């Protein structure tokens, strides 16, 4: 299973099965919430795992969705719909079917994506979309047990290499604000070009440039 019951309660629930909020949504209930780094850690891991679980259908959402989650789902689904062939080309070049269950290649892709020192919400959304497409591919190959590892690689990368940027940009509340008014298409195109450098599919991506 994507969320083994013997290891942890499903994301979005506590061990008794009662729904819980994302830490960043606690508002005035701050006394009941973790603070600082714990909030970012909790929200990031919950967000990524929920998006991948929902996209693959291996962990259907059964709780009230946060603004961050609904926004990320909308953006990820939109990016994948527009650039499906590009993402599929990336997966083909990565030869996932010939790799073991070690998903560290996801972190390698992430590091290359941001290797020019530029970080923005479009790139982060595109990385999560990449993880969603990889997760769907793994599910179709009978390797659904690897999807949690994909989420862990993405979340760990963001919480280490991009932690300072996330904090300076109001974390996931900043993500919601950005995509509330911003059309991500231009930043997504630039991100896909960066991915092409990793996967060697520049010719496939050429059609995305206007």
UniProtKB/TrEMBL annotation:
Compartments where located: Cytoplasm; Nucleus
Origin species: Coregonus suidteri
Single annotated GO MF: channel activity
Protein name (Swiss-Prot/TrEMBL): Bcl-2 Bcl-2 homology region 1-3 domain-containing protein
Chief location of this protein within or outside the cell: cytoplasm
Family: Belongs to the Bcl-2 family.
CDD domains given in the database record: Bcl-2_like
Sorted UniProt keywords: Apoptosis, Cytoplasm, Nucleus
Residues covered by the Bcl-2 Bcl-2 homology region 1-3 domain: 72-172
GO biological process, one term: extrinsic apoptotic signaling pathway in absence of ligand
């Amino acid at each position: 299973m994507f969320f083994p019951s013997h290891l942890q309660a499903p994301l979005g629930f506590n061990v008794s099965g009662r729904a819980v909020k994302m830490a960043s949504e606690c508002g005035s209930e701050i006394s009941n919430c973790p603070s600082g780094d714990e909030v970012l850690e909790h929200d990031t891991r919950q967000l990524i795992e929920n998006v991948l679980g929902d996209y693959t259908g291996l962990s259907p959402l059964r709780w009230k969705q946060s603004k961050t989650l609904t926004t990320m789902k909308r953006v990820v689904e939109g990016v994948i719909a527009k650039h499906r062939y590009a993402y599929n080309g990336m997966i083909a070049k990565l030869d996932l079917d010939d790799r073991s269950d070690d998903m560290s290649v996801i972190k390698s892709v992430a590091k290359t994506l941001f290797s020019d020192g530029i970080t923005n919400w479009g790139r982060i959304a595109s990385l999560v979309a990449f993880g969603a497409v990889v997760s769907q591919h793994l599910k179709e190959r009978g390797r659904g047990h690897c999807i949690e590892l994909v989420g862990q690689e993405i979340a760990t990368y963001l919480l280490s290499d991009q932690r300072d940027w996330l904090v300076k940009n109001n974390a996931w509340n900043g993500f919601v604000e950005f995509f509330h008014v911003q059309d991500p298409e231009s930043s997504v195109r630039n991100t896909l070009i960066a991915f092409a450098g990793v996967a060697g599919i520049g010719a496939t991506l050429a059609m995305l440039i206007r």
